[in-house]
Amino acid sequence: MSDLSTKLGNIGLIPVVVFDKVEYALPTAKAMIEGGLPVMEVTLRTDAAIESMQLIKKNYPEIILGAGTVLNVKQAKAAVEAGCEFIVSPGFDDGVVRYCLNNDILVTPGCVTPTEITHALEFGLNILKFFPASIYGGLPACKALHGPFRMVKFVPTGGIDLSNLSEYADKDFIHAIGGGWLCSANDMAEGRYSNITDTIRKSIDVLLGFEIAHIGINMENEEVSLELAAEVSKAFGMALKQGNSSNFVGTQFEVMKTPFKGKNGHIAVRTNNIDRALYYLDKRGYKADISSTVEKNGKKTAVYLENEFGGFAVHLIQK
């Protein structure tokens, strides 16, 4: 998997943008950056697409530009010359794929059947667009196809929005999620760019799915840990479960038997995808303590942040 593909997977959301007018390009790009999503797939459905990409590349070089609805090699070449870094096509075109591979351009062709997926694998491609997702079975279809094609991940697009985004957000076989809901054509046409920023922020929140898992309190030894846990259990009628390094009361209150990370203790936060969470937290100024990473079967299951909050360390855990 290329570095760019990995980055897009960590970003997790790919806005599919249709520019009817070139003047929409720069304010839309600004709105996306303010929302925290520095990527867009500009579809080549309109005459304004190429010029819009050129403007965005010149004025907002930090945005990862892709071209969508690429149907032939001529379009792919024009998009690359305009500054796009990845190509997306609704179906599988051998010429487009060969051009991209020969020129080291990331390409994500559309594949929705076992035959198409097998053909893509012959080209060495295992990140594939699944479009239109809602028509071809959505998440259940992606899951079923992932069964025999364990090496493949999908980028579903079509029929996904804030109402069902969470269904896709925690699945290992979903590389990223694309869609037009992230950048409404009506919002662009009516100059409501703040709506685009707001939608992006809400979508990132859903994508990450942060929620408090439990609070851990540091105690000086095993005896006082058990005393506190028993007192909390008695007061609130929650089951006490003794462990090797801590005692749990219910599922959200952990009493450590010896001081651990954090001056006072730790806060465990569940997330849909640790790698994505670390990407966005890093952008917000919060670094991971990589030495604390716990993995299972090559996948991160837990990691602490370097930062403390009110004397509490924070560690992410995979849902």
Structural category: alpha/beta
The N- to C-terminal Cα distance equals 24 Å
Q: Tell me about the largest β-sheet.
A: 8 strands, mixed
CATH fold assignment of the largest domain:
TIM Barrel
Strand content is 25-35%
CATH superfamily of the largest domain, by name, is: Aldolase class I
The CATH class of the largest domain turns out to be Alpha Beta
How much helical structure, as a percent, in the residues?
25-40%
Summarize the structure.
The protein has 319 residues and is α/β, with parallel strands linked by helices.
Question: How is the topology of this model organized?
Answer:
Blueprint: H1 3-11, E1 13-17, H2 25-35, E2 39-43, H3 49-59, E3 64-68, H4 73-81, E4 86-89, H5 94-102, E5 106-109, H6 114-122, E6 127-130, H7 138-146, E7 153-156, H8 165-169, E8 177-179, H9 185-189, H10 193-208, E9 211-217, H11 222-236, E10 240-242, E11 246-249, E12 253-256, E13 265-271, H12 274-283, E14 288-296, E15 299-309, E16 312-318
Parallel strand pairs: 1-2, 1-8, 2-3, 3-4, 4-5, 6-7, 9-12, 13-16
Antiparallel strand pairs: 9-13, 10-11, 11-12, 14-15, 15-16
Helix pairs in contact: 2-10
Describe what this molecule looks like in 3D.
This protein is of the alpha/beta class and 319 residues long. It has helices spanning 3-11, 25-35, 49-59, 73-81, 94-102, 114-122, 138-146, 165-169, 185-189, 193-208, 222-236, 274-283, and strands at residues 13-17, 39-43, 64-68, 86-89, 106-109, 127-130, 153-156, 177-179, 211-217, 240-242, 246-249, 253-256, 265-271, 288-296, 299-309, 312-318. It folds into 2 domains: 3-208, Aldolase class I (TIM Barrel, Alpha-Beta Barrel); 211-318, 2,3-Dihydroxybiphenyl 1,2-Dioxygenase, domain 1 (Roll). It is 37% helix and 27% strand. Helix 3 (49-59) links the parallel strand 2 and strand 3 (64-68). The protein has 12 helices and 16 strands. The protein has an 8-stranded mixed sheet. A 6-stranded parallel sheet has the order 5-4-3-2-1-8, sandwiched between helices.
